[in-house]
Structure formats: structure tokens, C-alpha cells
Write a structure and sequence with these properties.
With about 350 residues, the chain is α/β, with parallel strands linked by helices. It has a single domain, classed as TIM Barrel (Alpha-Beta Barrel), CATH 3.20.20. It contains 12 helices and 15 strands. The strands form 4 sheets. An 8-stranded parallel β-sheet has the order 2-3-4-5-6-7-8-9, sandwiched between helices. Helix 1 links the parallel strand 2 and strand 3. Helix 1 packs across helix 2 and helix 3 packs parallel to helix 5. Bound molecules: (4S)-2,6-dioxohexahydropyrimidine-4-carboxylic acid and zinc ion. (4S)-2,6-dioxohexahydropyrimidine-4-carboxylic acid (DOR) binds next to loops.
Length: about 350
């Protein structure tokens, strides 16, 4: 595409986002609200968002942070989630559903990733009655799809999860809505494509753009480290093929996960890539490289709402093809966050975003 070309889409949504809390929330929320009309907000705070009351209180803090950032009311809607534990009561699911403000329940296998220690130790062992209510009332289960067994190679944990957890789960609860979050492998793509029933998957911009070489290019690069970790090139290609295929089961979820610079650049650095600031530019870059910019709108703006039973947004977002450098760092509370691909040049930027 020519420099200066524009691309106007129905305003997109981010179906997987970490906004954190407090001063960090106040630093990052505007980046998402500039591009997305809604986002599924991950519940892995410390302590986690385990009840409807927690979710509604957190929603209030997000709305307050938007106001403090001067973001007009109704520009950005946080879609709340609960954090599933071994003891989430079935009644809590009904309360969540009745609130109309909680749109999913997140499964973190205990120990799988950042703030997952309160997660589930044995899904079908401990959570059957809760899953039954979720299936019954149409509450989606949002799955971090990696086993935590230390004997399983880190790069194989998604593929092993499909056999050990996903298949048994879906045969026990075939009508449960499931989102396989941040898919990273060809195995995951193949599974979702052939699966029957209500299943979908989110795909991040970083997994579309980079393979695992990015982690080691010229040295160890902590800002490319996330979980599930970047995989081999053939997996990246399978993700690009899925995202750009037009198959409505695949949609956008950034998994943008801010950590202060110091928490990533240390002996044992945290997992998480900050992509919210340039999310749509990164996705446009990936779709353009695949020659499928015409499919970006379905992936970013239409497939997600259809799966969640919501209407597409009324407004539009316009991207323009102008080279821009991703900043080396952005302010994050008292610290800084290093965005993914900091210092690199990117071919797209946001021109305008508006409501209808
Ligand atoms: O890389 C990740 N960071 N993966 C996750 O699953 C969690 C996230 C975070 O919260 O930082
Ligand atoms: Zn996440």
C-alpha cells in the first residue's frame, strides 16, 4: 500500500487486555481507549477479581481512571471477567450473569503465568458444578491454555494442554462457550478449526509478527517475553493464516500486559508484552504482510462481538499508512514501560477514532 493510504474500520474491540490497577491503570487506559471501544479486562490483579462485587468495584476504578484521563464517557466500555478458582461457587456465576457487566470467567491453571497462584489446580476435579452453571447460562470460559507440569517442555505446553485439559473439558461440557486465549501454535489452530460447538480463539499482534528468534536477536530481550512464549516460525505462519482466513472463530485479543521496566529487566523477569499503545498499527502490519488488509475488520471488529453475543460498534477507526517510530519507553506510574518493538519503525498509525 502507498504511503498516506487510509484504512477505515468499524471501531474494534480488544478481547483480552490487562489494565492492572491504581497508578498503572491510570497510565495505560488511554492507550486502549484511543483505539478500542470495548475490552475484556483480565482479572489477574493481586488479589484477583474473584466475585461479582470485586468485578463491579474494579469496573468503577477503570471508569474513574478514564475520567481522570479526560476520556469522554461512553468512549470505552470495560467488559469485566471473574478469576476462576478451585472454590468459585456456582451461585457466583449466576450473580455475574445477572449483573450484565461480567462477560467471562478466566481459567488460569495455577502457576501458569503472572498472578496465577490462586488459579485452578484441577479443573474437572474441582469446578464441575461451576462449569455446569456457566454452560447453562451462556457464560464464556476464557482459557489460558498451558499445562503447568514442569516435566513438559515450555514450548509444548499449549499442545499438551489440548489433550490433557481442553478435550476432556469440552467433552464434559459440549455447550460451554470457550475462548482459547492467545493461541500460539499450529496445534491450537488445528484444534479450534476442527472443533465442534461454541469455541473461538484470540490471537495477539506479537504472536502474528514474531517467532521465538525475537527473544534472542542480538542478545536476551526481555520485552519480547510473554506467556505463552513466542514459538517457531511455522506456528507463527499458522496463526497468520488463521487470523486472515476469514474464519469467524479467530479474533483480536492483544494480551497487552504492562510491567514496569525494572520488573522485566532483572534476574527473573516478568512475562508480558506491552502492545496497547500501537495495537492496531501492529495488527495492520501483520495483515498487510499477509496481503489481507481486507480481512482486518472481521478479525478486529466483527468476529469477537458475534461470539460474545454483542453488537459490533457503531463508530469507526481510521488508520493511515505513515511511518512512525515506536517510542523507546512510555510513562508507567512512577516508572516506565518498554513497548513491544520499542525503537522500531512501524508503517501504520491511528488517524481518527469516533463514535457514530
Ligand atoms: O505474558 C503474560 N503476561 N501472560 C499472561 O498470561 C499474563 C500476563 C500478565 O498478566 O502479565
Ligand atoms: Zn493475558
Amino acid at each position: 500500500m502507498q504511503a498516506g493510504a487510509v484504512l477505515t474500520l468499524t471501531r474494534p474491540d480488544d478481547w483480552h487486555l490487562h489494565l492492572r490497577d491504581g497508578a498503572v491503570l491510570r497510565s495505560v487506559v488511554r492507550d486502549s481507549a484511543r483505539q478500542f471501544a470495548r475490552a475484556i479486562i483480565m482479572p489477574n490483579l493481586k488479589p484477583p477479581v474473584v466475585s461479582t462485587a470485586d468485578a463491579l468495584a474494579y469496573r468503577g476504578r477503570i471508569l474513574a481512571a478514564l475520567r481522570e484521563n479526560g476520556v469522554p464517557e461512553d468512549t470505552f466500555e470495560p467488559l469485566m471477567t471473574l478469576y476462576l478458582t478451585d472454590r468459585t461457587p456456582p451461585d457466583e456465576i449466576r450473580r455475574a450473569k445477572d449483573s450484565g457487566l461480567v462477560h467471562g470467567v478466566k481459567l488460569y491453571p495455577a502457576g501458569a503465568t503472572t498472578h496465577s497462584d490462586a488459579g485452578v489446580t484441577d479443573l474437572l476435579g474441582h469446578c464441575r458444578s461451576t462449569l455446569a452453571v456457566m454452560q447453562d447460562c451462556g457464560m464464556p470460559l476464557l482459557v489460558h491454555g498451558e499445562v503447568t507440569d514442569p516435566k513438559v517442555d515450555l514450548f509444548d505446553r499449549e499442545a499438551v494442554f489440548i489433550d490433557r485439559v481442553m478435550r476432556p473439558l469440552r467433552s464434559a461440557f459440549p455447550a460451554l462457550k470457550v475462548v482459547f486465549e492467545h493461541l500460539t501454535t499450529a496445534d491450537g489452530v488445528a484444534y479450534v478449526r476442527q472443533a465442534d460447538g461454541p469455541i473461538a480463539a484470540t490471537i495477539t499482534a506479537h504472536h502474528l509478527l514474531y517467532n521465538r528468534n525475537a527473544l534472542f536477536k542480538g542478545g536476551l530481550r526481555p520485552h519480547w517475553y510473554c506467556l505463552p512464549v513466542l514459538k517457531r516460525e511455522h506456528h507463527r505462519q499458522a496463526l497468520v493464516e488463521a487470523a486472515t482466513s476469514g474464519d469467524a472463530r479467530f479474533f483480536l485479543g492483544t494480551d497487552s500486559a504492562p510491567h514496569p521496566r525494572g520488573a522485566k529487566e532483572q534476574d527473573c523477569g516478568c512475562a508480558g508484552c506491552y502492545t496497547a499503545s500501537h495495537a492496531m498499527a501492529l495488527y495492520a502490519t501483520a495483515f498487510e504482510a499477509a496481503g489481507r488488509l481486507d480481512r482486518l475488520e472481521a478479525f478486529a471488529s466483527l468476529n469477537g462481538p458475534a461470539f460474545y453475543g454483542l453488537k459490533p460498534n457503531a463508530g469507526t477507526l481510521t488508520l493511515e499508512r505513515v511511518q512512525e517510530q515506536i517510542p523507546l519507553a512510555l510513562p508507567l506510574a512512577e516508572s516506565q514501560v518498554v513497548p513491544l518493538a520499542a525503537g522500531e519503525s512501524i508503517a501504520w498509525r491511528i488517524r481518527a477514532s469516533g463514535q457514530a
